[in-house]
Amino acid sequence: GGRELAGQMMDALQPVLVFAAAEVVICPPFTLLQHLWELTEGSPVSLGAQNVYHQNSGAFTGEVSPPMLLEWGLKWCIVGHSERRSLCGETDDLVRQKAASLLQHDIQPIICVGETLEQREAGKHEDVVTRQLRHALTGLNADDQRLCVIAYEPIWAIGTGKTASPDQANKMHGLIRRELVELSSERIASEVRILYGGSVNAANAKDLLGQPEIDGALVGGASLKIHEFPSITAAAG
Ligand code: PGA
User: Fold this and answer.
1) Whose CA is nearest to atom 1 of ligand 1?
2) pLDDT (tens digit per residue) in 86-138
């Protein structure tokens, strides 16, 4: 079960954490947060959520608000994951509202952007990602923009075993960085971390993370593999 896996994972991560210069954030399902909170207390690992509601309070049964995330001591939250965009009707506008309300509570949003295979094949991938990015960051002040992390996750690479090539990923990250200069400033653009996500594993992490514009990885399936995640973490250090 999840509890056992989380415990084993934390044990496997300990030696890596001592040497890795990388920052490690775990974003588990809500049901595991309490348990992971106990396991990670006092360690360099931070916790994040996979989703949040954009309102602080009100009659929204079943939703979890930014103040509720704060009660768990969460510092991070993923927003606009492609599955939430495609399956749960999360629009660019909602992604922006979620990011803004997280930032009001000093929780750093990890904003996911990425194109479908169809969009890439039609040559529209850069337009799609630019639009998603602009929507998410418009209206935020420079201090808040600096706290955002962008995760480029081409949808065709998520959970498919098919990664973007290091060059494809680096190119898109370069575009995101240039867009950040437009939206904000050179300084902010150089400080914002841009992660790559989509079938990252122990075998391909070094190549991807070795690219100049790739600052880190958002790892899905491989983060549940006991030996794989520590070695990805080491590659990021
Ligand atoms: P994956 O998932 O690493 O299994 O492709 C990435 C994600 O869900 O963001």
Assistant:
1) 220
2) 999 999 999 999 999 999 999 999 999 999 999 999 999 999 999 999 999 99
CA angle 102, 108, 109 (to 5 degrees): 75
Integer Cα distance of 110 and 51 in angstroms: 10
The catalytic residue among 90, 125, 135, 153 is 153
Strand 149-152: give its sheet, edge to edge: 25-26, 46-49, 76-79, 108-113, 149-152, 193-197, 216-218
What residues contact 177, with CB distance under 8 A and at least 6 apart?
A: 189, 190, 192, 194, 213
Neighbours of 200 (CB within 10 A): 29
Of 236, 150, 159, nearest to 188 (Cα)? 150
Is the CB of 197 within 6 Å of ligand 1? yes
Tokens at residue 233, please?
């973490």
Count, residues in the chain: 237
pTM: 0.96
